[in-house]
């Protein structure tokens, strides 16, 4: 249910996880400005992923930024970081105030339309350390975001991530739950997602 004070953080009811949703972390004006800037200025790339031995183009575009030169590897892809832009540093500072950690790295995802997606996964790569803090910012089209419990994949939780929102995942979340952005047949516009992480 949406409350009158939608700026209030919402703690998601996921067993054993610590996930907090801030629906209006950025104003609509800021979100629109950042969406346009990042859409235009980011050197988007499309890597190939291997699924059950077959190679496919990843169903979205990505870019990696970092302040310690460390690459990030997942799904057989290794990405090298670009240096933070002014806009990304501004966003990083805002997010760090709430998350109370210093992030090194930001993975950007561009979902061009409803056919772009992100399959079930947990952000549990070794270089993220035990109990990673992951701060996920969304700009542009609204998309459905789903969680499922690893120990009981029928136990799912579905929400919509709106433009300007922040989703903070902490504690045991990545150990116990997976998440995804499913494809949608709806006619949706592009969406940009930023996930701030710490790579040791
Ligand atoms: O686009 C999103 O909201 C999720 C992105 C994500 O899960 C990831 O990049 O690891
Ligand atoms: Fe993720």
From TrEMBL:
User: Which GO terms of type biological process are on file?
Assistant: DNA alkylation repair
InterPro entries, alphabetically?
AlkB-like, AlkB-like_sf, ALKBH3, Oxoglu/Fe-dep_dioxygenase_dom
The answer to whether keyword Nucleus applies is no
Q: Which Gene3D superfamilies match?
A: Alpha-ketoglutarate-dependent dioxygenase AlkB-like
Domain (Fe2OG dioxygenase) spans: 102-200
| Superkingdom field | Bacteria
Which SUPFAM superfamilies is this protein grouped with? Clavaminate synthase-like
Q: Name one GO molecular function term.
A: metal ion binding
Query: Which UniProt key words apply to this protein?
Result: Dioxygenase, DNA damage, DNA repair, Iron, Magnesium, Metal-binding, Oxidoreductase
A family per Pfam: 2OG-FeII_Oxy_2
Name of the protein: Alpha-ketoglutarate-dependent dioxygenase AlkB
Q: Which organism is it from?
A: Dokdonia sinensis
Task: Provide the taxonomic classification.
Answer: Bacteria, Pseudomonadati, Bacteroidota, Flavobacteriia, Flavobacteriales
């Amino acid at each position: 249910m949406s409350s009158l004070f939608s700026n209030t953080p919402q703690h998601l009811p996921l067993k054993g996880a610590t996930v907090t949703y801030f629906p209006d972390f950025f104003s609509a004006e800021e979100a629109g400005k950042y969406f346009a800037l990042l859409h235009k200025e980011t050197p988007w790339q499309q890597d190939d992923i291997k699924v059950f031995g077959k190679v496919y183009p990843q169903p979205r575009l990505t870019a990696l930024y970092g302040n310690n030169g460390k690459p990030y590897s997942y799904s057989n892809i290794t990405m090298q970081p670009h240096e933070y832009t002014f806009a990304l540093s501004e966003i990083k500072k805002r997010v760090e105030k709430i998350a109370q950690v210093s992030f090194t790295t930001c993975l950007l995802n561009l979902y061009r339309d409803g056919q772009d997606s992100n399959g079930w996964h947990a952000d549990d790569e070794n270089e993220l350390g035990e109990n990673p803090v992951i701060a996920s910012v969304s700009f542009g089209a609204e998309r459905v975001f789903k969680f499922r419990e690893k120990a009981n994949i029928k136990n799912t939780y579905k929400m919509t991530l709106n433009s300007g929102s922040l989703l903070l995942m902490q504690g045991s979340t990545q150990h116990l739950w997976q998440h995804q952005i499913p494809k949608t047949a709806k006619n949706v516009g592009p969406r940009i997602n930023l996930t701030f992480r710490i790579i040791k």
